[in-house]
Structure formats: C-alpha cells, structure tokens
Amino acid sequence: MELDALYQEVILDHYKHPQHKGLLSTYDAQVHHVNPSCGDEITLNIALNNGSISSLSWDGVGCSISQASVSIMSDLVIGKSIDEARVILDNFVELMQSKGLKTGDPEILEDAVSLAGVSKFPARIKCALLGWMAYKDAVLSASTK
Amino acid sequence: MSELDVAKIRKDFPIFTRTIRDGKKLVYLDSGATSQKPQSVIDAEVNFYSKNNAAAHRGAHQLAEEATEAMESARQIVAEFLGGEVDEIVFTKSATESLNLLAYSYTSLITKDDSIVVTEMEHHANLIPWQQLAERTGATLKWFEVDTDGRLDLSSIDTVITEDTKIVALTHQSNVLGTINPLEAIVARAHEVGAVVILDACQSVPHMPMHVADLNIDFLAFSGHKAVGPTGVGVLWGRSELLEMLPPFLFGGSMIETVTMTSATWAPAPRKFEAGVPNMAQIVGLGAALNYLSTIGMEKIYRHEVKLGAYLIERLSSIEGLRIVGPHHMESRGGTVSFTFGDIHPHDLGQYLDAQGIAVRTGHHCAWPLTRKLGVAATTRASLYFYNDESDVDALIEGIIGAKKYFGRS
Fold first, then answer.
1. How many domains is chain A built from?
2. What SUPFAM superfamilies does this protein's entry cite (chain A) (predicted)?
3. In this structure, what CATH number is given to the domain that contains residue A67?
4. Is A60 near chain B, with CB under 8 Å?
C-alpha cells in the first residue's frame, strides 16, 4: 500500500527520536523557515569550519515527514564538506521531484532514501524539503558572513 | 432519523459514484473548503455554454439577450435567497474579491482618525484586506478576542467598537471552530456609533436560512462554490444606499455611464461594481445551486447539520487523547469541527484518513492568528454538509482510531 511506502519505519523512528534537535548556542548562522500551507516551522543553527559543517542543530514543529526529514538531513551533512553536502542536497531534491519514479542512491542519501515515497504525494514534498531548504539557506548565510 | 433522505440526495451528486485510493468509498468531510456539485449545477453550466453563450449586457443579437436573461435570472434567485433587492446583488469572482472590493472602495472614506474592527477568528480573506486598508489610510485596526471555548469575548464591546469605528467586519460562522457569532449586540453597537457591519457569510449562507433584513447588517459576502455552486463566482450583497455611495473598485467595460478621453461616470449599482464580461456560466450555475438548496430547504439543511454535528462531537469526544478546538456543544454552532489528536500531527492524520477514502482538511485553515491564539500549530477539520450522514462520521471515527494504531507501531 502506498501509505506504507510513505511512512516507512525509519521515518517514524526519526520522528519519535529526532537527531540534533534542540538549538546549540554557538553558530555562524541561524535561519527560520515556515511552510505557509500548513504552518510547519523550523529554526536551524549552523556552524562552519574550514569549508565543512562542524555543527548543525534545529528546533521546530511539523508532521512526521518534515521532522524525520530534517533529522535525517542533520545526520547526513554534519561533518561533511559543503561541497559533499551539496551533492547530497541535489540528489535529495531530485528524488523529491521524481514523482515516484526514482528510489534514490543509498550510497549518497543513506536513510534519506526512505523518503522516496513522499515524491508520489505532491502535497507532502514541501514537508520533506522544509529542513533541507533551511539548511541550504543557512549554509549560504554562514558562508557569506 | 434525519428529515433528509441523504441516500437520495447523494444520487444527485455524480462525484459520489467514484471511489478513492484503490476502491475506497468517498467520505467527503471537507465541504468547509469547497462543496460538491449536484448534476443540476453542472448541467446549468453546460447548458449555458451549449445553448446561450454570448457576452451578457452587450450585443444586439438573440444569444446576447438570452445570456443577459440567464445571468439576470440568477441575480433574482440570489436576491430572493438572501432576502435582498435585485439591485443589491453584485457578482464577483469570489467572496475574497467581494471583501477586497469593499476594502478598496472604502479607501477614500477612511482616515487616520478612524478605526476598523475585526475578530481574532477571521479567515485571512476577512483579515488581510482590513489590515491593508488600515495601512493605506493610517486607521487603527482593532479586534474582538476569542476565549478558550472558541467564542468571541464581547465583554469589551464598548471599548472595541468606539465612536471612531467606521467598519466592523466579522465572520458569521468560523471556518475553523464552527462557532456561529452572535450578531445582535455587535450590530446594535456598530450602528450606534455609525459604523457599517460587513458579514463574511461563506460558512453560513450554504448552511442555514439567511435573511439580510432580519440580521440588520450592511454588507454580506459569500462564495458560490461552498454552496454547491461553481467556483469562480462570489456574491456581495450591500444595502442599496451604501452601494450607491461607494466608489467602484475595478474599472473597465460595462461599469460606466459615459466616457470621454479624460473622465468617466459610473453606471448605477450593481453594474458599477461589475467591470468586464462577467463569469456568466458560473453565475448561472450559482442560480441553479441556490434553487437546488431551496428545493431541499435551508431549515432542513440546518437542522440536519446540527443533529449530525452533535453526533460528530459526541463520537469525537469519546476518543482518548482527542481535543476538540472550539465549542463542545451545538448551541450557536455549525457542523464544522476542528481537533487535535495526541501527538499525531494533523498532516499525518489527514494522510492516513485519505488512504481510507476520507477527505478532511488539515493545517491552520487560512486563520493563522486564530490557531496561534488557541495554541495549536495545526488542526484536523471535519466539515459536514447535508449530503453527509452518520455513516460518514462513523468512518471518520474508525479512521482516527486506525491512525493511532498505525502511527503507534514500531
């Protein structure tokens, strides 16, 4: 059933046990993003060191898809270089826009491939992308400081 | 048992013959967003395009005459439905446009010394136009607050509506809470200080008998698509003397009396407010929609929804962890019920219900200040109409219980 493709165990796990949730007090940039269609919100703090993401923390409210997605994203990008993270981000955005036709590269996306089912539900793609777009914005903001 | 034969009524709505998500029966509980359409409304639009299509109020030919006649008959139907005069009915493309029309038309009549009053439970469509009017003119925006039961706090009525108040704009029935607002005291106070009362009746015109003269209000807006009519048509009703006094909002063809290269004068209302070729087929469809509702009977529709609403609230209240946001009893309340359910986010609940064929609305319902005030980021909303019955409520309850099991796994 398509619902099970959407709500995979790993998503519900991340929803119940979100990673890197709770804002750290030191950061280079802080961004706040909202999804105006449903009211979901996220605040994301990022710190960079030598072109790498040295820390990322976030807080927010939202559905399981948006919360799990930002949790998975945090795990993926922390410790990576900005360039490596950009490849992950591009892959994820492409997966979300695939209308259910792609499964995602587990080598690059790891747990994020569990969100592939979201691409079949047009109304939910924004939920999954909320945290990633906040990340993109935060990196830009921190790099241009 | 309801006075309405819901099974028979549902046969008038072709959409109920289709299935949802792999063969599930459609349980449509989102009429607060938009209603479904009976065949007679669909036919009215098709007939107009097939037989009478031409530009109304223009042209010297038979089709133009028929199109004009079809559109003006619909205006007559709307006037009778609301208990107003024919010339008091302005067709717009939506209730949102009706409210914006008023907010723009009032610009030159409002000054920085005036105040505009709204409520905390307004849909964005009846909040932002007034915020913007206040910003354009320097007027003060004031509002009635909402209490924890989802009712307007009128204890401060004399300090909210004051001598400088020119406009009081409020919803008749909240699209989130289902609360039906008491108008009598508000209208009396507004008129006492010389303010006009503008009623957003999107959630009441489709659901209960309405008579503008009895309500003693000055303007009323509603949309066709929530009243089993087509999208693309809204109505603004206004007292004739006020429509006559107000300047137009949109300028263009057919709203004029005379035009020179440097000036123009306006046609009398309602034409003054209807620039451009109107949405004729949709207006004709709206006429068919209101005729359909009248045939069923607005009193019966109202009683059916109150009874079904009571059943919905009773069943929802029996679910552990479910919190109804808004009044818990049916006094001064319609069949729209918003709720939260434990730690299951409304978006996830709505998605699960959808997989069972159940259509609900989730989110802030275009009333963000209200949901923020009530301390909920989002809610799930079930909104009833006369084509719903107890089986729809039962399906929803079963769905909610199923969602708890589904998301509680692992």
1. 1
2. SufE/NifU
3. 3.90.1010.10
4. no
CA angle B73, B77, B83 (to 5 degrees): 140
The domain segmentation of chain B, as residue ranges, is 6-30+297-407, 42-295
Cβ neighbours of B366 in A, within 8 Å: none
Q: Work out the number of other CB atoms within 10 angstroms of the CB of residue B390.
A: 15
Among B21, B348, B364, beta carbon nearest to A39: B364
CB environment B43-70: b (16+ within 10 A), e (fewer): ebbebbeeebbbebbeeeeeebebbbeb
Q: What is the DSSP string of B83-99?
A: T--GGGEEEES-HHHHH
Domain B42-295 in this protein, CATH class: alpha beta
Task: Quickly state the pLDDT bin for B1 (edges 50, 70, 90).
Answer: low
Beta-carbon pairs below 8 A across chains A and B: 54
The residue with tokens 């087509």 is: B230
- Percent of chain B residues past pLDDT 70, beyond the cut: 100
Tens of pLDDT, residue by residue over B242-255, are 999 999 999 999 99
Res. A145: pLDDT tops 90: no
Q: Which domain holds residue A128?
A: 2-143
The whole-model pTM stands at: 0.94
pLDDT, tens only, B54-110: 999 988 899 999 999 999 999 999 999 999 999 999 999 999 999 999 999 999 999
Q: For B314-333, what is each residue's pLDDT tens digit?
A: 999 999 999 999 999 999 99
The domain made up of B6-30+297-407 has a fold known as Aspartate Aminotransferase, domain 1 (3.90.1150)
| Rounded (5°) CA angle B118-B154-B329 | 100
Residues belonging to chain B: 410
- Among A1, A3, A63, beta carbon nearest to B347: A63
If you compute the radius of gyration of chain A from its CA atoms, what whole number of angstroms results?
Answer: 14
CA–CA min distance B352, chain A (Å): 7
pLDDT of A144 higher than 90:
no
Q: Indicate the residue of B377, B407, B409 with minimum beta-carbon distance to A39.
A: B377
Q: Which residues of B touch A39 (CB under 8 A)?
A: 363-364, 368, 371, 377-378
Q: How far is B22 from chain A (nearest CA, A)?
A: 9
Kindly indicate the confidence band of residue A36, based on its pLDDT and cuts at 50, 70 and 90: confident
**Looking at the DSSP assignment, which residues form a beta bridge with residue B361?**
B381
Instruction: Mark yes or no for CB contact A127/B362 under 8 Å.
Output: no
Tell me which chain A residues have a C-beta less than 8 angstroms from the C-beta of B362: 38
Which residues from B are below 8 Å from A37, CB to CB? 363
ipTM here: 0.91
pLDDT level of residue A1 (50, 70, 90 thresholds): low
Identify whether B202 is a catalytic site residue.
no
